[in-house]
Amino acid sequence: MRLRGCHPEPFYPVASPVAHSIAGFWTFMLWAARSKVHLISACRRYLPQLILLVLLANLADIDVLFGLGVGTNADAFHRGFTHSFVAAFLVALAVSCVWRIAGSFRRSFTLYFLAYSSHLLIDLCTGTKLGWNSTASGIPLFWPWKKDFSSPLVLIVGVKHKDLPMLFSMQNLQSSLYELFIFGVFTAALLALWVRHQKNQAMSHERETPARAVYNSNPMQSNERIP
Predict the structure, then answer these.
(1) Is residue 1 part of a domain?
(2) CB 149 within 8 A of CB 141
(3) Angle (nearest 5°) at CA 224 between 222 and 225
(4) Residue 92: inside a domain
(5) pTM (predicted TM-score)
(6) How many whole angstroms separate alpha carbon 124 and alpha carbon 119?
(7) Residue with the larger pLDDT of the pair 8 and 113
């Protein structure tokens, strides 16, 4: 793990739980798309699964608590081991052994890995200035390799968490509202695809039902199935 306490500006802006929680919801939508129920019904019926995926999407920032546990610098261990694919793999493996949310171990592991890794993808694109620049602080995606990776395209400015006044500052409120807007637009697009997918499924089912009825009512075809 890396200590950043001696850095002249140790408190890096980070994406808020707003962005990460919505990304966890996207993972839930991916899982629930296999069901034939409406999204609202899926959220009600599978609320524990939704909560778990949202928690996994935020879990990488648990290293902030590590920093607060050893001192007052929340960034002392932030964006360290927990922000790597190794951590995503281990967490997905452990949770899959406890709860196979998607039935099989492989599919459950994949879903958990995607939920956790969504945090890493968002942090890759988080910096201090929007646009094509080098303000992203970077994360050790391939830990234990010490090289930090960051995106040249910064999509999220993020929030600052040096202390409580800064955490609840107007600047952080604006950043959170920006995340809500940007991720809300993507969510709306995914919802449109969801609705279209369900309509296609319904139309396909409607076409198949009469065909099956005609087939079952035909005695010649029914006799052909009798040995």
Answers:
(1) no
(2) yes
(3) 70
(4) yes
(5) 0.76
(6) 9
(7) 113
